[in-house]
Amino acid sequence: MGNLRTGSRILVVDDETTLREVISRRLRRAGYVVTAAPNADVAMELTQLGQPPFDLVITDVHMPGMSGLDLAMVLIERRPAQRIIIMTSDPDEMLRRAALARGPVHFLLKPFELFELEAAVEQALATQRFMVTPPPSAQRAYRQAAIGTIAAKSLLWVDEQSQAGRGHGDRVARMARTLAKSMTQPFTAFELAELEVAAWSHELALLAGAVAHPIEMAWRSANMLEANGANELVCQFVRHMHERWDGSGGPEGLVGDAIPLGAQILSAVDTLDHYSAAWVQSGMRAELAAHRSIDLVVSQQGGCFSPEIVDLVNRNLDALRSICGVARINLTLEAIA
Questions:
Q1: In this predicted structure, what is the pLDDT of residue 2?
Q2: Burial class (CB in 10 A: 0-12, 13-18, 19+), 177
Q3: Neighbour-count burial of 225, counting CB atoms closer than 10 A to its CB (0-12 exposed, 13-18 middle, 19+ buried)
Q4: What is the pLDDT of residues 10-63, one digit of tens each?
Q5: Which of 2, 90, 239, 248: CA 20 to 30 A from 59?
Q6: For the stretch 39-63, what's the b/e string if a residue is b when 16 or more beta carbons lie within 10 angstroms of its beta carbon?
Q7: How far apart are CA 326 and CA 320, in angstroms?
């Protein structure tokens, strides 16, 4: 488990000073990079989008003001794959179920020995995080059905091979979710799940080898998803994500509103992330690369992208820049946040 500790950033949130310091000291000695917060308000500031993400947040459940459960819900909404450990002295099974229903959340009953804490931390950090946005368990079950039989390790391997760099699938998913939620008629929870699954799996064709053209990549990936039992709408989003608003794209040359809306959103945010990655790889600062990428996407209104999609991009500039910029501050980050 030693590799998990190297560079792993942990936030400890507890209003009890002694316990907070004991936990922080023990985890630092174990090799983790630890930040401590005395309450949920401070934790919220430390985890704002635009700040480097934490690999794990450990929080007490009962604190003045916002509780640990409410904090967990906000953090998962910000970063759907955020790993969290909730500490509590309440053994109530209903509390445990409420915590676990909020996504990638682990439960640690107090009092505990420090070796139990370390074990819980290692287990949380080792948990695969390819599924995006759990909160309600019904959404999680729906998402698992939407992805079919594609394994987590396959998605993680594909993510490592992307020309846009590690974390590409997650960045695309988060940006797509941001745009979809800001629409006049926002996507439903289930539609968001389908959109995020499509974002994670749109380069699945890399499992069969390098693909030279993005249209061919999307077509092959959609076929692989379909063969593995993925949701029909997920396959449509992936297959048509390189259609162009003016009809000059592919694979079917769809025009305007004939292009599935989810595919239009994926097209814009995938393009944005690839542009940004290319500039970062050439040595440009991540923040500037994200800014220029957005400008380039906006400039293609009426050609590649519809006026509606460009308007969504313009209304979410800060969030989009933050997602691209944070993920690329350290290109060695392995956490998908």
A1: 41
A2: buried
A3: buried
A4: 999 999 999 999 999 999 999 899 999 999 999 999 988 667 789 899 999 889
A5: 2
A6: bbeebbebbebeeebbbbbbbbbeb
A7: 10
Enumerate the domain spans of the chain: 2-126, 137-327
Q: What does the CA dihedral 214, 292, 334, 230 come to, rounded to 10 degrees?
A: -40
Q: How confident is the model over 74-107, as pLDDT tens digits?
A: 887 777 668 899 998 876 544 555 555 445 678 8
The number of beta carbons lying within 10 Å of the beta carbon of residue 179 is 25
Mean pLDDT of 121-140: 55
Q: Parallel, antiparallel, or unpaired: how do β-strands 56-60 and 9-13 relate?
A: parallel
**What confidence score (pLDDT) does residue 40 get?**
95
- 38, amino acid identity: P
d(CA 106, CA 108): 7
Q: CA distances (Å), 327 to each of 52, 127, 173, 305, 332, in order?
A: 8, 20, 13, 25, 10
Distance CA 304, CA 335 (A): 32
Owner of token pair 């600062």: 285
Encoded tokens for 171:
């960045």
> SS3 for 87?
strand
Question: CA 176 to CA 272: how far, in whole Å?
Answer: 11
pLDDT of residue 144 exceeding 70: no
Domains 2-126 and 137-327 share a fold: no
- Report the topology of domain 2-126: Rossmann fold (3.40.50)
> What does the pLDDT read at residue 27?
94
| Whether the predicted pLDDT of 330 surpasses 50 | no
Is the pTM of the predicted complex or chain greater than 0.70?
no
d(CA 331, CA 160): 12
Q: What is the dihedral of CA 80, 259, 250, 237, to 10 degrees?
A: 30
Torsion of CA 151, 155, 161, 167, to 10 degrees: -150
